[in-house]
Each structure stands twice: as C-alpha cells, then as structure tokens.
Amino acid sequence: MRISRKKRPDKPIIPHFNTNERIVATEVRVLDVEGNNVGVMPITQALSLAREQEMDLVEINPKGAPPVCKIVDFRHFKYQKEKEARKQKANAHESEVKGIRLSIRIGDHDMGVRLTQAEGFLNRGDKVKPVIILKGRENAKSSLAFEMFKKFHNLLLEKMPIRYEQEPTRQANQITAIIAKK
To answer: How far separated are the first and last CA of the chain, in Å rounded?
Structure first.
C-alpha cells in the first residue's frame, strides 16, 4: 500500500504585514507613498487618508513606538518585497567545504591539477579540505604527509592569499586540514 505524502506548504518568502483594519495599534506614524513622514495620528484618520488616495495602509514596523505604517498599494508593495527577497536569495552563495585527496606519493602533474582545483574552489567562495589517507606502512611515516601539506599550502600560497581555518591534524589514518581564502 502506498504511503500518502502530503506536500508541506512552502515558507513565505516575505514576512506577514498587517494591512488596513488588521492593524491593532490605536496611534500610528504614517509615511506617504514617497516615504515622507506625514506624522503621528489615530488609526481611523490614517485609514481614511489611505482610502482617499485609493491605497492601503501597511504596517511596516509593528514594534516601533508608535508603529510605523505606510500608504501604498499593497499588491505592488508585496510584489516588490518578494522580488527583493528572490534577488537576495539568488545572490547568496553558501560556501561548501570541498575535499581534495592527496597522497604522499603524488606526482608533480597531479599536484598541479589539485592546486588548480583548489584555486577554483577558493575563488568561488568555497573552503578546501585537503585529505591524505595513509595506507599500510605510510601510517608510520606521518611526517611525510605533514610535509606534503606544507608543500601544498606553500604552492597554493604563491597563487593567492590563503589561511588555515583548521591546522593539519591526524585522525586515525587520515590527515586533514581546512583552507580558506583570506
């Protein structure tokens, strides 16, 4: 039998704004369409002023003393706020931690490839986590792995300013660090 999965409603992009009769304050500070301060007045007078202009009274800052309301067309106001929120969301880049596998016996060309990968990740705003996995007898030679980290760090430092967000540390058979752009 199929399990019913109900789609949860999406979170609203913008916060809820009280409009017109839903505003509970008795006195409000009113701003006109251009954003100029009209003054502090009773809610009934502010509502009648908004109706005269065939607009809505929207509560912008309910926590103010007195609450701040603006006379605008609510549909246009809501559209503009959603547009700004979408634009902000599109421009936001969440940085990820990208892993790069190295080895004690890595060749020069392979090291160059890993460096260009790391450089690309760092330029994009991500962090880089180089990992060296020690296998077999390599576990006894962890000092070589730390030297490889120094080499990788110095070569990357020649290309761009970077810093260790987490110094190279050994955990069981792995040696890891986290590198970020300055």
So the answer is: 55
Rounded distance between C-alpha atoms, residue 52 and residue 64, angstroms:
25
The answer as to whether 36 is a domain residue is yes
State yes or no: pLDDT of 1 exceeds 70.
no
Q: Mind listing the pLDDT tens digit for each residue in 103-115?
A: 999 999 999 999 9
Task: Tokens 């009274």: give the residue.
Answer: 57
pLDDT at 75: 93
Q: The CATH number of the domain where 160 resides is what? A: 3.30.110.10
Tokens 């509560």 locate to 59
Domain-located, residue 3:
no
d(CA 71, CA 76): 12
Q: Which two tokens stand for residue 102?
A: 């190295």
Residue 107 phi/psi, 5° resolution? -80, 165
- For residue 10, is it within any domain? no
Whole-angstrom CA distances from 96 to 87, 92, 127 are 21, 13, 6
Q: CA separation (Å) from 52 to 2, 21, 39, 47?
A: 56, 15, 17, 9
Range of the domain at 159: 97-181
What residues form DSSP beta bridges with 162?
181
Domain count, the chain: 2
